[in-house]
Every structure is written in structure tokens, then in C-alpha cells.
User: Fold this.
Amino acid sequence: MNKKTYQRDKWKSVLFFIAIIAITIGSVIITQFDMLNGMQSFPAAFMWMTSNLLVSSEALEKLPNILDKLLETVFMSIAASTTAAVVALFLGVMGSRATSPNNIFSTIARVIASFSRNIPIVAWALILLLSFGQNSLTGYLALFIGSVGFLTRAFIESIDEIDHKSMEALRATGATYFHLIGKSVLPQGKPQMISWVLFMIETNIRSATLVGILTGTGIGYTFDLYYKQMDYGTVALITWTIVITVIIIELMSNYIRKVIM
Assistant:
């Protein structure tokens, strides 16, 4: 790298950081956010949490019911993620430039993925709530639709990144389109796709808590119920069970990734 190129890259970096700082300051001014007051409120908020969010013996008596609702949320998240993965695999194959039969299928698949991905899961829950009411189906569909969009995008990128030489070799032998998918695309992309599905399950378990508050199901509804009753001991217990469950799922996912990658 010559001196002129180095100076140019240096000035680009400086201008980039100046732009970020200017945007941050502008956002603070527009929103009238008092950063100093916000920082000063942290100690008081921390003291409130340490004095109120304590697991009590009365809260522990409700643990069986909490675990039952938590399992409902976990299984709903897994079901939404895995069924969405099946649909996303089809859309991913159609959407990838390497495997799509034509540009029309690719465009349609990408539009569907973009539409379902760019609307937040909470928004999907509110939209579906009007049609299906407060039940587990509404929560499942909200997670399913959001997962389809995310996984389709992830699968398209996974397929685009595979080595296409094996596909060219199969084409040279007269292999059909389905042979190309089954013998080349899926075996190469499977580890990364499984990794994305595991990531989706972890994400959906977190999202399902908020969705449950809206749909009146699972651990989210239980959290909202005791929070409105100001039963902070039970709220603390629910929070800890969610945190521990997410950590366990993440450790299991990391182990599976190490095995398959």
C-alpha cells in the first residue's frame, strides 16, 4: 500500500467516525435524551432490582407451573423453527442464483423472504392476533413467519457460498436438477444450514417470551400475569428460569455445531 492510498483510507476512516458522532449527537438532540440523567438513574435502578427481584419461598411453590409454561414456550419455538426451516429450504433453493430454475422463481423467493423478515415478529403477532385471537396458534404462526424470512435469507447465502465445481461435474454426467440438489447442494450446505436452524431456535425462545405476552400463552403470559400483580418474587423466578433455559439451549447448540462443522 503506497502512501497516497494509506492517507486516503485514513481520511475515509476519520470521516466515517465523524459522521457516526454527528448522527449520535443529532439523535440525542432530536429525541431530547438526557444522557447525564440516564447515567445517574442506573444506581437507583440497580438498587431497586437487588431489593425487589428476589426469589421467595412463595415463588418457589409456583415453580412446577412456571416450568410447564416454559416447556410450552420452548417446544413452540422448536416447532416454529423446524417447520419454518422446511419451507425456507425450498425458498432458499429457489432463491439462490446457483440453483434457481429461472430468475422469476428467484425473485419471488427473495421477495417473500424480505417481506416476512423485515416485519418484526411482535408486529406479526399483533396482526395475527386480530384474526386468530389469543392462543398458541397465533404465537406459533408469528414465530413461523418471522423464521421463514430469516432462514430463507440465511439458506440462500449458504447455497451461494458452496463449491459449485461438484455441481458442474454432476451436470457433465447428465445428472438431473434434483440430483444436483440432493448430491451436491444439500451435503455441502447441511452443516451451515443446521447451524442457522439452531440459532433460530435460540432466537425464537427469546422472542416467544414477548410474543406470549401479546398472545396470552406460554411463559410470556405467566410473566405478564405476575408482573401486573406486582409479585416481583415470582417475576424474578420466571426471569431466572428463562435465562438458565436459554443458556442451556445455547450450550447444546454450540456443542452440536462443533460436532457437525
Observations:
- The chain has a mean pLDDT of 84.
- The chain has two domains: 3-39, 57-260.
- Residues 50 and 150 are 37 Å apart (CA to CA).
